Protein 1
Amino acid sequence: MMGGRLWNSAASAALVSLLIVFGFCISSCFTDATRIHADFIVSSCQATTFRCLCVDSLSPYASVIRDSPMELARSALSVSLSGARSAAAAVSKLAAEETLAPREAAAVRDCMSTTGDSVDELQRSLEAMGYPKGRGEAAVGLRLDDIQTWVSAALTDEDTCMDGIGGGRSTGGVVKVAIRRQIVNVAQLTSNALALINALNSASP
């Protein structure tokens, strides 16, 4: 009986801790988005997997996004591209380390190649969406299928990098942590951007 009470107490404590963490996440989303047009960003980010990251990363662009799904998707792509460039630079710097074991060096070089491809695909997608402005949204609408394909390919490249670094014994713990810290964040940003582009395409006539 005593054991059951202790278990229930532990389970309750764990549940409370989980709710506190979840509540903090939701609270931080709304706190960071308390500015003009923030409601549009918050509601749109419900379509993404990483909602808090979506709101946090796009809230600084609320004055540009306003209530435009197109500007929302452009901004999400821009944020993802910026993250991909930073990740690619970090991986390239790590690849230049002479202290890496042969297997580690090979895995990092592969990751450098896939992150470079991701940058190219995101750059192409952003250009196709007319960023900087001035190329016309009608033309963008005709290319949304291509953009979805390119962003999806970028996400696949990022996942491939993480799989290569995390799989088997090719890389040591320090290398895994250093690269995953960079790639996980950009993969989540890219996933969110893809979700917003999918929503934009679904809303197109």
Protein 2
Amino acid sequence: MLKDFLSWIEHDLGPWGPLVLAVAYIPLTVLAVPASILTLGGGYLFGLPVGFFADSIGATVGAGAAFLLGRTIGRSFVISKLRDYPQFRAVTVAIQRSGFKIVLLLRLVPLLPSNMLNYLLSVTPVPIWQYMLATWLGMMPITIALVYVGTTLKDLSDVTHGWNEFSKTRWAFIVLGLVVSVVLMICVTRVAKVALDKALAENADLDSDIASPQLPIVADPDVNLHQPLIIKIDHPQESHEK
């Protein structure tokens, strides 16, 4: 379906293609569907500058839509899913001190699935403007890398179909670009991982059981809150007999 969608953008939409590609991120992100093929498609169809701009804006807006959905009508559902991600407990504590920094590092480090992270962050006290800016910056390296790969696939497709020819110098630049992209992604991820671990460790001394009013508190499922509370009162015996 996504392949047919990209083909439709390429052949039928003309200059509106980048805008439609960006808008397509919103439903995919809200539904937690991986959108990597759209990012590759942006590079394949529009090249590095235009493809990167469309993919970057689309992914950020999509993440913002999921964030707002989780902070409003989907809040109870997100809170019910927190027990599936115990490692997120430390994150909620750290965000109270450094919201922008933690969100940025979480985008650079694949600690949690990106689409689920949109919803988990929605029940933390991070302001939406910090969330959007940190998300845009944090997703930029992987977006550039995937768009570049998509652009390279387009070039290779042109060569295999006989539509274009590359010199040895051009081939060398393509291979070098791919290698540099991979190396940079690994370096950025490792540096961000160290920074994230350090930031979470700095907040380890906080009592995470004492949550702020803005943080969700998940009750123990073994406790039946609907069970009536029974209080027994012993009356003292009368001291005088008739």
Protein 3
Amino acid sequence: MPTGPLTLADIGSLNKDKGCDVCGEKAFKNCASCGIALYCGKPCQEQAWPSHKRQCKALSSGVWTTVKFQPLLDAMPFMAGMHSVNLNRYTRTDEVKSGSGGRTKETRNPPPNDHGTKPFIIKIQTTQASIRVYDRRRTLDLYLMSKNDPVNFRRLHEAAGTGFKGMKCYRWAKRVSDWELSICLDIKLPEDPKW
């Protein structure tokens, strides 16, 4: 275990298996309807149902849109060899000073599928020309340019417009293939997660 304060990347890597949504014990089953909630057994599932029911029904009936993304260097070739740092309101200053951002990942290999077929939360960030989508652990970091898919770009851009400063939002997604995600664009999370 780390001895100092944890970064959000540390927290993301340490909580891959968060356990039962009710008691925190090892989870053995997902909600059969939405696949998102995790439970150790039937008693916890029944206890959680009154609070989970609304979100479950919304996600089960939500509109899921499949979007094909690209690796960074295909979307923005000018980034080759450049340094980049991910900053947000939770970024510690010592992370930035240490240069932990490093060089842009110069790979065109698909990101690992850490989530399998289970739904997970993604962050959608937008500019006028590009959209970046990534998971909390940043094992998945994908891009979409407006010129490559104007219809889905507009959909993602509109969803991001409903979030923080009209530039980012969080949604549920499922991995469809190496470069495709199915995203539930019409259902907002009850609250923004700490990212």
Protein 4
Amino acid sequence: MTESTKTHVILLSCGSFNPITKGHIHMFEKAREYLHKTGRFIVIGGIISPVHDSYGKAGLVSSRHRLTMCQLAVQSSDWIRVDPWECYQDTWQTTCSVLEHHRDLMKRVTGCILSNVNTPSTTPVIGQPQNQTTPIYQNNNNMNHTPTAIKLWGKISESLGKICCARPHIERFTFVDENANLGTAMRYEEIELRILLLCGSDLLESFCIPGLWKDSDMEVIVGDFGIVVVPRDGADTERIINHSSVLRKFKDNIIVVKDAISHPMAIVSSTKSRWELRYLENGFQGIF
């Protein structure tokens, strides 16, 4: 497959990130590596979306600090960014709402409707707005040249940056003004772009807990968007999927990252990181 015929993907990870760990970043890297190896996808960007303070989780640190920690964790990455939209809302947002927000935002930025997993691949997602200006990625030497993933993500990020506003108490962070008029300033080659939810097998398993998720939300998350799962601690993802009628129904929309080499994905766990920090604190208190 050529670059233009592959599905371009933005990986979105929701969670408390309380705190963010190296394992979270490793999860992004492993997912991108695996998707690229399939030959069907090009990952052009990753988004970390920390949960709102009103989520109600015990011990949840203020979003101001969690956002700062996340930003520090990705400061050396050229493709993962932290998005504070979820934290800046009036109340907690469902994962479904966060996915829909980013889908609608990207639609407005690019001027086209983003593809869902069930949308025919012939449907252009980042296409050509109606203005007839010269395409941004047009190559004078080769009219069939397609944009690289890095250029595409960079251009989208640049356009988002033009409509971003800084919140006073977190000067390093920006959020997108969803009321901004983006117009049709950009023009792209026709490619297919999807937003996929990135998660660990623990979140996948939570879909099987009765009453925890609305069936309608699960239908949208798995059926319309699709998910990429990076298993932790040797979890049996096949068993988890078969345990849920919704997951079984949309099994083809679930991509499980497989790796011949065993990686300690337990380090993704923020809970274990907090335990270790408390252990160290108690240890130091015993010394002094």
